[in-house]
Specification:
This protein has one domain: Sandwich (Jelly Rolls), CATH 2.60.120.200. The chain is built from 2 helices and 15 strands. A hairpin with an 8-residue loop joins strand 10 and strand 11. It starts with a helix and ends in a 10-residue tail after the last strand.
């Protein structure tokens, strides 16, 4: 879908992320100070930027050329991920910000746990889109509206993943609990494949909220 001049202007806005990732399955906590040791850019090149006092902030940029993203170098089986994020301000419709876990996708039977934030038309609430994949199968979507403006301040977005459940939280408030019901004969639950931590900012004007003309 072609992009309007208004949309191209909006692509220049910056998403700031303070990385505070706690992977409790390995008793390890990662902060921005050792970002280059534990994380790596996945796309966007120079659009992934470390800045701030003591390299305390990471910015993902989206322009007419590309979005940007990063991932953890290691894979994990179970844990908790906390990421402090401040989203694109103003009219961000057509953009998607993601925080998710995923195993190797080239296998065709990957596992994935999605936290996706759909940009908004100015004055409208951000939409949170959640999904869970197991063995390449998804279709477990649920959506929620944020009750605050996520572009004003940093808030903590968390994923808890253990053998019994997956929980999505915002500032410690649970939004969704996805339980493992294998004891009841339902085998849909990601539990065998290690996953990396991913975050990204990208353009999805073909399916995310549209810019008003």
């Amino acid at each position: 879908m072609g992009m309007s001049s208004n949309w191209q202007h909006k692509l220049m806005l910056v998403l700031q992320i303070v990385v505070v990732v706690a992977l409790m399955a390995s008793n390890t906590a990662y902060g921005v100070g050792n970002f280059h040791n534990d994380f790596e850019s996945t796309f966007g090149g120079h659009r992934v930027q470390i800045s701030g006092p003591g390299n305390s902030q990471l910015a993902l940029n989206l322009d007419e050329g590309s979005g940007s993203g990063f991932r953890s170098k290691k894979e994990y089986l179970y844990g908790r991920i906390d990421m402090q994020m401040k989203f694109v301000a103003g009219n961000s419709a057509g953009t998607v910000t993601t925080l998710y876990l995923s195993s190797e996708q080239s296998t065709g039977v990957h596992d994935e746990i999605d936290f996706e934030f759909l940009g908004n038309v100015t004055g409208q609430p951000y939409t949170i889109h959640t999904n869970v994949y197991s063995q390449g199968q998804g279709n477990r979507e649920q959506q929620f509206h944020l009750w605050f403006d996520p572009s004003k301040n940093f808030h903590t977005y968390s994923i808890v993943w253990n053998p019994k459940l997956i929980m999505f939280l915002v500032d410690e408030t649970p939004l969704r609990v996805f339980r493992n019901y294998e004891n009841h004969g339902i085998t849909f639950f990601p539990k065998n494949q290690r996953q990396r931590v991913y975050a990204s900012l990208w353009e999805a004007d073909d399916w995310a909220n549209k810019v008003e003309q």
